[in-house]
TrEMBL record:
Protein name: Dihydrodipicolinate synthase
Keyword field contains Lyase: yes
Keyword line: Lyase
Recorded superkingdom: Bacteria
Positions annotated as active site in the UniProt record: Y136, K164
Cited SUPFAM superfamilies: Aldolase
Protein's UniProt keywords contain Acyltransferase: no
Length: 305
């Protein structure tokens, strides 16, 4: 499957049982809610998917399971976040063998590679596969920025096709478009500035709170792209306090709590993460419940398959 790089691509959470095993039943409930809302792709094993605490076997099992459940309805991408080039290449090859439609690719983890090292890392993965690749550019959390000059170099690889733009600098979207036109499709990756990025020309949204609120997320995207800005803005203003949970250190726990509140998820996380409690829990629940109390009615045709 070639990827049409546009729309809402949820970075889905990974579900766990009480015995700390993959919970495919709970995962399926959320996955179907995403597809019913009309999302355009699925991204597995990102930061929100707790990739850092998953074994390789679990990641590949989750990929195989998702591909079977989705059954070609939308592209399924596997995130690659590895510490070594050798391992990143190995995961890319295995993802291709299992039938993944594409990859999202982080710079090397743990070691803060310089420009030459980062480009060599990306190049090695791109040369190892023909799968379409989205580069994940998030210097805020991962400390390595993929600059415009670096994208100039990466443009030689036809399968490097998109970027998850998470620099939190909205003007970077304009810089990318001015320099590269539509060579790289741009996805906003920061929920609380998503609408602003879409208005500035982003092609899509790698979303987090979509895991709990898929219909609202899809509606904002579609309304913006239909130039129905006022309608999108009404939903976005309602959504913003919840979207801001996406940029907190405990975003996984917070978003999973929101999934429980909307009936399409579970709260279980894998240690060292722990479920939130006490005043912190009450504070997050208040944000979620305040939003649910005034959940807006969505314009007809703004979501759904």
């Amino acid at each position: 499957m070639s990827i049409n790089w546009t729309g809402v691509f949820p970075a889905v959470t990974t579900k766990f049982t009480a015995n700390d095993e993959l919970d495919f039943n709970a995962f399926n409930i959320n996955l179907e809610a995403q597809l019913e809302a009309g999302v355009d792709g699925i991204i597995l094993c990102g930061s929100l998917g707790e990739a850092s605490v998953l074994t390789e076997e679990e990641k590949l099992d989750l990929l195989s399971h998702t591909l079977k459940e989705v059954n070609g309805r939308v592209p399924v991408l596997l995130n690659i976040g590895e510490s070594t080039t050798k391992k990143a290449v190995d995961v890319a090859i295995k993802a291709k063998q299992l039938g993944a439609d594409g990859l999202m690719l982080l710079p090397p983890l743990r070691y803060y590679s310089d420009v030459e090292e980062t480009l060599a890392f990306f190049s090695a993965v791109a040369e190892s596969t023909d799968l379409p690749i989205m580069i994940y550019n998030n210097p805020v959390d991962y400390k390595i920025e993929v600059t415009l000059d670096m994208f100039e170099y990466l443009a030689r690889y036809s399968n490097i096709q998109a970027v998850k733009e998470s620099t939190r600098d909205i003007s970077n979207i304009t810089r990318m478009i001015n320099r590269f036109g539509d060579r790289f499709k741009i996805f906003t990756g920061v929920d609380p500035i998503a609408m602003e990025c879409l208005v500035m020309g982003a092609d899509g949204w790698v979303a987090g709170l979509v895991d709990a609120f898929p219909k609202e997320t899809v509606a904002i995207f579609r309304l913006v792209k239909q130039n129905r800005i006022a309608e999108a803005l009404t939903i976005y203003r309602w959504f913003l306090p919840v979207l801001e949970l996406d940029i907190k250190p405990k975003l996984v726990q917070y978003i999973k709590l929101a999934e429980v509140a909307t009936g399409i998820g579970t709260e279980a996380v894998r240690a060292p993460r722990l479920a939130i409690k006490g005043a912190e829990r009450e504070s997050v629940l208040k944000i979620i419940n305040d939003a649910l109390a005034v959940r807006p009615q969505l314009p007809e045709g703004s979501w759904g398959i």
